[in-house]
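Hello forum,

I keep getting stuck at the same step: I have a sequence, I want structure tokens, and every attempt I make locally crashes halfway through. Rather than fight my setup again tonight, could one of you with a working pipeline run this one for me? It's a single chain of 115 residues.
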Amino acid sequence: MSAQPDGPYGPLIPMPELTPDGLRAAVARIAPSRVPALTQHLFEATTNAQQTQSLAPLRAFVHSWAVFVAIERHPERAARLHELERLVDAAEQDPADAMAEIRRIRDDAEAEAGL
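Reply #2:
Ran it on my machine without issues. Output:
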């Protein structure tokens, strides 16, 4: 894992290496209930990569879980994202502002993960 936490309001863990093992270890620390989903996604990505003879499914796996970790390692950012997702799902108001903020959170997470 790279970089150390940056103070009491920084990330819970450093951003891990973008490998299946690095991402699995990070998810196990910040969202242990999601490890089975990660494991299933990795199995499916590996199977698809073998069947298609393409690394694209594995790249998609890394991208998806790197963004997840980059978001979830910051509790306030993760909570805000989940709140925005609930607002969009509830469909009680125009979702445009919430969707724009979700996109910004995801873009920031991608940049943080180096994607």
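Confidence is low (pLDDT under 50) at residues 1-7. If your local run keeps crashing, start a new thread with the error log.
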